[in-house]
């Protein structure tokens, strides 16, 4: 058979496939909801970001008028958030990422029907914005993961119910698109879906994830512009002189992140007995008490701990963070109090803010090295230590700060931190929180119908 004949057959085959792709009504019906959901995720991420900034600025304006307004706003906001959660939005519980991970578990159809509804998505947005407007240490970047997964799953529900593989693909694609749109970091979205969400590479989900990331990212970019989350940092680290920063930052971030993850997992199910009893019987009162603690800490330290931490982290990275030497430990404390309050809100972005504070402290120990470089290493180390997701850690920090020249040092610090963290906390934070939800759902289902199928 001649080469020309083979080429002709190949062209005919490609032509037939293209006609089928363009003209097939079934193909259009199958793909259109996926495209619409991806664009909608980008739109919601842009609006969620805008709302988050406005909510934080509103709190800051009130605080500037009188710091003592925080003693009213923060407790009231957290109490209101928990009341609305228990009264109207049971599916909006938590920080978003564990809920999306739980929904990936096979045989959790009932859990998906509770967590991945448009009502749960709307609840996550509303309650997270209330928490941010209250000055709590919450971010929208975690909740948007559940929101994106819910949008993707809900708009493709019929296909997802029929096929478990399609269901997982939709959830993974929604989560990846959400992270990409929220941080303007498409590579981070893809790595996040593979490493943090699925813990494995799902070949069938590849095209769905890539297309969703592209469409959601372009939509969010059209709203927010092409920006770098933490600004542009033109910094390098000469490893011939600064290699010592890698093990120091990796070790410090891994220890701090591992302890944080261990405490969060413990406090989720086991607080000191009086606090545990209060949180169980009177969740709104407990949330109000946490709000008072957050307000007190914020007032005593001049207001630097209120909010997500985005602006403080950006200030530390770009301007050196003069006067913020105690920011890391203070922000860590408010992160823990916000987490145990029971109010919905994300910990993803606040963990990066805590990491920036850790990096600032470590930079003071190595004044002969570029400060910004050490801050970025501390940030990626704490994030990787807390999440035990080193690939996501170095990619997300690299993309958010446009610091591609730092890729090797960021990789090394992230890897060291994740391995140190595993010595202190054997279970990955978000994955274990997700499995707690799965075990709770299966236990509840077994109590309702002990002889029936497990969900």
Summarize the SSE layout with pairings.
Elements (H helix, E strand, L loop, with lengths): L2 H21 L1 H41 L4 H18 L9 H8 L4 H7 L2 H16 L9 H13 L1 H6 L1 H20 L2 H13 L7 H19 L14 H4 L2 H25 L3 H9 L1 H18 L9 H10 L7 H14 L7 H18 L5 H17 L2 H12 L5 H18 L4 H20 L7
Number of strands: 0
Query: What is the percentage of strand-forming residues?
Result: under 5%
CATH architectural label of the largest domain: Orthogonal Bundle
Distance between the termini: 57 Å
**Envelope shape:** globular
Major sheet, described briefly? none
The CATH class of the largest domain is identified as Mainly Alpha
Mean pLDDT: 81
Task: Please report the number of helical segments.
Answer: 22
Q: CATH H-level name of the largest domain... which superfamily?
A: Clc chloride channel
What is the helix/strand order? Answer: HHHHHHHHHHHHHHHHHHHHHH
Radius of gyration: 23 Å
Oligomer: single chain
Sheet/helix structural class: mainly alpha
Proportion in helices? over 70%
Count up the domains.
2
CATH fold-level label of the largest domain: Clc chloride channel
- Stretches where pLDDT is under 50 for at least 5 consecutive residues are none
Explain what this protein looks like in three dimensions.
The structure is a single chain. The termini are far apart. With 455 residues, this protein is mainly α. The longest helix has 41 residues, at 25-65. The protein folds into two domains: 33-224, Clc chloride channel, CATH 1.10.3080; 239-439, Clc chloride channel (Orthogonal Bundle), CATH 1.10.3080. It has helices spanning 3-23, 25-65, 70-87, 97-104, 109-115, 118-133, 143-155, 157-162, 164-183, 186-198, 206-224, 239-242, 245-269, 273-281, 283-300, 310-319, 327-340, 348-365, 371-387, 390-401, 407-424, 429-448. It contains 22 helices and no strands.
